[in-house]
Amino acid sequence: MSEVWVYRVEVLEVPDDESTMPDIAGFEVLSSDGHKLGKVDQATYEAGSGWIVVDTGFWIFGKKRMVPAGAIESIDLDAREVRLGLTKEQIKQAPDFDEVRRDQDGYRQELGEYYAAS
After folding, report:
1. Beta carbons within 8 Å of 38's beta carbon, 6+ residues apart
2. What is the pLDDT of residues 72-98, one digit of tens each?
3. What CATH number is attached to the domain comprising 113?
4. What is the pTM of this model?
5. Which of 47, 69, 84, 88 would you call most buried, defined as having the most Cβ atoms within 10 angstroms of its Cβ?
């Protein structure tokens, strides 16, 4: 299950002159079925536990979703877009983001099970 929290190598190529991952906060998030889901509110690149928080805005009443790094299909720095390998419906049905529990193993396991099954 831990692989769901790991960025795929092909998601983003960091230029040789860059020593750190780029900040993707504010990037538009797109579903696999082409819908705009919202914007990246937070992102982390921790080894083995990477994730983004998507602020979905109005379409599900201002909810946020914590999405494991493994669900990211691509990051386009020029277009400022993150494309997920999940549909709009899968994001809508995902558990709500819980800021208080975000670092707890049980919460990550719950999210990991949801996204691994999606």
Report:
1. 28, 29, 54, 55, 56, 57, 59
2. 999 999 999 999 999 999 999 999 999
3. 2.30.30.240
4. 0.89
5. 84
